[in-house]
Amino acid sequence: MPVHQTYRKAKPVEAPRRCHRCNGTGQAPCRVCGGSGKLMRGADPNGHPLFGQCEGCFGRKMVRCQTCNGQLFV
User: Are strands 49-53 and 27-29 parallel, antiparallel or unpaired?
Assistant: First the structure.
């Protein structure tokens, strides 16, 4: 008697998609400062704004993408 074997169809492999937040660069604008690298710290006696370095990105304006964790693909 012949033995019948059941073969499973292979699932198609999905290609990795480029991250939608960083567009595949791995870097995204800082959410703390909005990508400016600085935050307003107050005003001087004349009313002019005083800015300081952002604590989120340390003045670099960009941080590792939170969506893809810097891996470029989702």
Answer: unpaired
Burial of 19 (0-12, 13-18, 19+ CB in 10 A): buried
Tens place of pLDDT per residue across the chain (74 aa): 566 666 777 778 777 788 888 888 999 999 999 999 999 999 999 999 999 999 999 999 999 999 998 888 87
Domain assignment present for 33:
yes
CATH of the domain at 29: 2.10.230
Q: Which domain holds residue 35?
A: 17-74
Q: Name the pTM for this structure.
A: 0.64
Q: How many domains does the chain have?
A: 1
Contact by Cβ (8 Å): 37, 61 = yes
The rounded radius of gyration (Å) of the Cα atoms in the chain is 24
